[in-house]
Design goal:
Chain A has 7 helices and 4 strands. Chain A is of the alpha+beta class. Chain A folds into 2 domains: 11-67, Arc Repressor Mutant, subunit A, CATH 1.10.10; 79-161, Glutaredoxin, CATH 3.40.30.10. The radius of gyration of chain A is 18 Å and the shape is elongated. In chain B, 54% of the residues are buried. The chains are: A alpha+beta, B alpha/beta. The interface between A and B is large, with 39 and 55 residues.
Chain lengths: 162, 583
């Protein structure tokens, strides 16, 4: 695990969050969600800081953080691709979409492109089953995908960047 | 005239947001006297984006698959009222039969009202059921639910009144009502649709339940993957507060009730009530030993009652129309209606609410329109990773809790994924086991390690390394996992394997004995060949082959070198002449 902020974490960002939730029991998951909103992932330093401030053993904090699929321990690219691998998408060939993404970006599940632009993450279900296969890139959902359509979407995003 | 654009998650994904913005612009530019509003999800996902035009006489014109290029026509129509302009966009009678064959209770407002405006909900007797309940004793409310026969819609199908009654009778001042909106079952999205499209109905259902069990605190546990649902629910709770339905001394009574929303962090096991409670308390979502049941000792060890979204969504209707009206629908064992998320290889996919007692074929063929692209119906997966595959031969099975259980599947939360002859059942079982093995919380050894071993066997079979005795080994392992697991996840994880072995044993045998995949899905077991008569020698496949396994000159038939071929299927995918044969 490494930290994004030039090697050190700006822990002062956490002040408000910790202040707000410190005395509300059972808030650890909410706090971790806020930490991830702030940094884009859960930096190790921040987790230790949360543990100390909330007076919870670091092992417990790490235990909770690693239990839930929402939490990440590595920074993600500018575009986070959530590729749905739910049942409906599976039946409608989401594996072909995964392969198309791999061909276009040369990344697999959990990896980030070398230029730091795209991260691919397989997810269980986005709940848009009727549009399967589906992926979400940041806030936008793309449905009825084909391998070619997927590649074009990625190409467009990359070109918009250049 | 009023125009409503369907803006659920599916509609938005299909481009409803863009359509709305363009309509807004068109109305402004043309200075049209038209009200533009949004609505939730009508459930006809296969026709999104949907634009509803309510004419001044109250009649409705429903336009489907609306895209950017249709905006000028719609603007023109609002000016001239000339139906011919939009005739091509209107929903066909056949497609509309998807809706007309349904009986909607939980979904009764979905796609018809604006979910972000409380007045829209109030206009259709909204919160009247809650007002009526406040005039009754909590016991009388529970009795009404008992008469209705409502059972938990989240999966287990446990009688709702029984849970409420147990929580009510549990001693203690502080009690909690929890709504399970952690819809983790891949292939089910009715809870998302209800929250996004009719949040006040859910809130009203929860208020009635809170009153019945004597809870002052309601906690809604929603998946973090549903940001729109969370936002709309938050907004609705605030509106209900302003209207005096939530807070202190509600409607002049001494009943107090407050709402909290907690965003889940992604764990399928949190659908289990005690795991959900652990998660609410900020821990790893690992199930507790039962008893004590949540009704005795749940959230913060206080009496708690947990129901799922769809269960609550039925409650206001029952209180308004009476328990007997609800119980009049359905079968001996299962009362009322159930919502299904119809997806997969189906022509018309979306949300279907029907009275219990219809058959699977009714839903798949009459409502869903049958199999997409002229395929043949092979089976339907009911109940997600905890459920099972029901084969086409059993399509006449009646939908109720008991009859579905007899097939080896379950009602579950209502996921209905339809499969055609191109779906490999062994691969399907592998897919579900991959899911449950990853989602096992790890507390019970049989679930943690058993699902992993089961998955490994299935993976072997799918790449042609199945062994004699594998089927029996899996059956044995399945029974061990079922009996050695604490919660529903482990107890039901083997169901997809057991049900596919039961109904599609020949497919397992073909994989193991002949190293063949009858559905041509397991790529490692396929052989690719080029049909010399169809091949035009365009060289496209040769250029695309990642391992240079294809040879041949321009305009002459190509051939594939079996030794080099890695069965990636790229050649078949790119061939424009259908010349690549798979066996």
């Amino acid at each position: 695990m490494s930290c994004c902020c030039n090697g050190t974490c700006d822990l002062s960002l956490l002040k408000d969050v910790l202040e707000k939730y410190k005395n509300i029991p059972g808030s650890l998951i909410t706090v971790l969600q806020k930490v991830q909103e702030l940094y884009g992932y859960l930096p190790q330093d921040a987790l230790r800081h949360v543990a100390a401030e909330l007076n919870i053993p670091p092992a417990t904090v790490f235990g909770v953080a690693t239990f839930y699929t929402q939490f990440r321990f590595q920074p993600v690219g500018k575009y986070l691709i959530l590729l749905c691998q739910g049942t409906a998408c599976h039946v409608n060939s989401s594996l072909k979409i995964e392969r198309a993404i791999h061909e276009e970006l040369e990344i697999e599940d959990g990896q980030t492109t070398k230029d730091g632009l795209f991260t691919l993450k397989n997810v269980a279900c986005l709940g848009c089953c009727s549009l399967s296969p589906v992926m979400m890139i940041n806030e936008d959902t793309y449905g009825n995908l084909t391998p070619d359509k997927t590649k074009n979407i990625l190409k467009d995003l990359r070109e918009a960047q250049a | 005239m009023k125009i409503a654009v369907g803006q659920g998650s599916c509609g938005t994904a299909a481009g409803a947001g863009k359509v709305y913005n363009l309509l807004e612009k068109a109305i402004e530019e043309n200075k049209l006297n038209t009200e533009l509003t949004i609505t939730g999800c009508i459930g006809m996902c296969f026709l999104e984006p949907i634009v509803d035009i309510y004419l001044d006489d109250g009649s409705l014109k429903r336009l489907v698959k609306v895209s950017e290029k249709d905006i000028p026509a719609i603007a023109e129509f609002t000016k001239t009222n000339d139906f011919d302009i939009i005739a091509g966009l209107e929903v066909t009678d056949e497609d509309n039969s998807f809706l007309t064959q349904q009986t909607r209770i939980a979904l009764r407002h979905c796609g018809l009202i604006n979910p972000e405006i409380i007045e829209d909900y109030m206009a259709d007797k909204g919160y009247n059921a809650f007002k009526k309940s406040l005039t009754m004793t909590p016991e009388a409310v529970i009795d009404e639910i008992k008469i209705s026969g409502l059972a938990g819609r989240g999966g287990a199908g446990f009688p709702t009144w029984f849970k409420w009654d147990a929580a009510r009778k549990s001693p203690g001042e502080v009690k909690y009502l929890i709504c399970n909106a952690d819809e983790g079952d891949p292939g089910a999205f009715m809870d998302r649709a209800i929250i996004e499209s009719d949040p006040h109905n859910l809130i009203e259902g929860m208020l009635i339940a809170a009153y019945a069990i004597g809870a002052k605190n309601v906690v809604v546990y929603v998946r973090a993957e549903y940001p729109l649902a969370i936002a709309r629910l938050q907004k609705a709770i605030e509106q209900a507060k302003v209207a005096g339905f939530v807070g202190e001394n509600i409607l002049g009574t001494n009943f107090n009730c407050d709402f909290t929303i907690k965003a889940g962090a992604g764990a399928f096991v949190c659908g289990e009530e005690t795991a959900l409670i652990e998660s609410l308390e900020g821990h790893r979502g690992m199930p507790r030993l039962k008893p004590p049941f949540p009704a005795q000792s749940g959230f913060w060890l206080k009496p708690s009652n947990i129901n799922n979204v769809e269960t609550f969504a039925n409650v206001p209707w029952i209180m308004l129309n009476g328990g007997p009206a609800f119980a009049a629908m359905g079968t001996e064992d299962s009362k009322g209606t159930k919502v299904f998320a119809l997806t997969g290889k189906i022509k018309r996919g979306g949300l279907v609410e029907i009275p219990m007692g219809k058959t699977l074929n009714d839903v798949i063929f009459k409502i869903g329109g049958g199999i997409r692209d002229g395929g043949k119906f092979k089976g339907v997966q009911m109940g997600g990773p905890s459920g099972g595959c029901i084969p086409a031969e059993l399509g006449d099975t009646i939908i109720d809790y008991k009859k579905l259980n007899e097939t080896g599947a379950i009602m579950g939360s209502g996921g209905m994924v339809v499969m055609d002859e191109n779906t490999c059942m062994v691969s399907m079982a592998k897919f579900f086991l991959d899911f449950t093995a990853k989602e096992s919380c790890g507390k019970c050894i049989h679930c943690r390690i058993g699902t992993k071993r089961l998955l490994e066997i299935l993976e072997r079979i799918c790449i042609g390394q199945g062994r004699q005795g594998d089927i029996e080994l899996m059956e044995d392992l399945c029974n061990e996992i079922k009996s050695g697991s604490l919660c529903g996840l482990g107890q039901t994880a083997p169901n997809p394997v057991l049900s596919t072995i039961r109904y599609f044993r020949n497919e397992y045998e073909a994989h193991i004995n002949d190293h063949k995949c009858p559905a041509c899905e397991c790529t490692e077991l396929l052989t690719f060949k080029i049909d010399a008569e169809k091949c035009t020698g365009c060289t496209l496949c040769k250029r695309k082959c990642p391992v240079d396994a294809i040879t041949g000159d321009v305009r002459k038939p190509h051939t594939i070198d079996f030794e080099k071929c890695i069965q990636c299927g790229k050649c078949k995918e790119v061939c424009r002449f259908d010349a690549v044969l798979v066996s």
